[in-house]
Specification:
7% helix, elongated, 18 strands, single chain, 348 residues, mainly beta, 24% strand, 2 helices
Length: 348
């Protein structure tokens, strides 16, 4: 067969679902295929054949499914052997000869691919000296001397200090370590002063109750931290008073409405005149209108509006003895001047 494609490696981005991948280049043996897994944290692991994957023709199927953000790298590594045997003065099989040539071409392609990953020098440079021995290289830094040849430098612990990077948040850069000749490292450049952040809204604890007055914003409009719930309905219409005095016990529930005891007194008088009508303005009292008696009654303290009048007719010399009963027209409750507020509780 002919080998016109020079590709010997391909990478696939995993998607947490695909397990079958195409091998786009020719190979001789399944064992010549190398599969590596690159995790999202850049950890590289070589998979085992056939425990981790199987190959059928030009398709490779993995046993596991790999997550999005991970990569599979499929490459070819042909065995560096030559197994064809030709008999002297014998017939040459074209299939055997072409297979040997194909294998050589594959090995050359793989070597060329590897060469692209070597540390190389331009053709314009002369040959460079080899690296020092492993004993001389151990725990040293690779450097180049005045001729550009590779050499080794001081121990890692003795690296001269370098100028520090500008700090992201205004921190002072680290001071350089002392050099091998005792020279002090360059002082790092002090980072720029970070911009002071804008203070956020106050953080109230869970269970805090916020009072919203008329014309003021709610905690939601103010973007206070947490979740706020309108709990006004739990105390709908209640007036609040401090614990003590005539207040009911704390946590005892809503105190029933009541009014303070008081007395309405009208001086006693007789009705002995000619027939006439006697009017008393309605003020929510119940009592007796009699000559020589007085009206004494109690009524609720508060604001009310009278809409009717009490009328009593008498004749000369007669003492009125009719019981007068009247009810004023008012609202649905007794209350002082007030404004409505809302209560919000932080629940989370």
């Amino acid at each position: 067969m002919s080998i016109e494609d020079t590709t010997v490696v391909i990478s696939y981005d995993c998607d947490d679902g695909t397990t079958t991948f195409t091998i786009p280049f020719v190979y001789i043996e399944e064992t010549d295929i190398v599969v590596e897994h690159l995790s999202a944290s850049e950890a590289l692991t070589t998979l085992d054949y056939p425990a981790d994957y199987v190959i059928v023709d030009d398709e490779l199927t993995t046993v596991a499914t790999y997550a999005t953000g991970e990569t599979l790298i499929i490459s070819r590594d042909t065995s560096k052997t030559q197994t064809a045997e030709l008999i002297e003065n014998g017939e040459i099989s074209s299939a055997v000869l072409e297979a040997a040539l194909d294998k050589g071409a594959m090995i050359d392609q793989e070597a060329a691919e590897d060469t692209l990953r070597y540390l190389r020098i331009p053709l314009s440079d002369d040959d460079i000296d080899p690296l020092p021995t492993s004993t001389l290289r151990a725990e040293k830094i690779l450097t180049f001397d005045a001729s550009g040849d590779p050499s080794v430098a001081i121990s890692i612990d003795d690296i001269p200090g370098e100028k520090g990077d500008t700090g992201d948040t205004g921190a002072t850069g680290p001071t350089g370590a002392t050099g091998p000749q005792g020279d002090q490292g360059v002082q790092g450049i002090q980072g720029e002063q970070g911009i002071q952040g804008i203070p956020g809204p106050p953080d109230f604890p869970v269970g805090f109750v916020y009072t919203q007055y008329p014309g003021k914003d709610s905690p939601i409009t103010l973007a206070l931290t947490g979740t706020w719930v309108d709990i006004s309905s739990e105390l709908a219409g209640d007036f609040l008073r401090v614990d003590g005095g005539n207040a009911s016990a704390f946590e005892s529930g809503q105190q029933a409405e009541d009014f303070k005891s008081h007395t309405h007194v009208q001086d006693s008088h007789d009705h002995t005149s000619a027939a006439h009508t006697h009017y008393i303005r309605s003020h929510g009292t119940t009592g007796s209108v009699n000559g020589g008696r007085y009206i004494s009654s109690a009524h609720a303290y508060g604001s009310y509006q009278s809409s009717t009048a009490y009328s009593q007719s008498t004749t000369p010399g007669n003492v009125g003895g009719t019981v007068a009963t009247n009810q004023n027209t008012g609202g649905t409750e007794t209350r002082p001047v007030n404004r409505t507020i809302r209560l919000w509780e932080r629940t989370a």
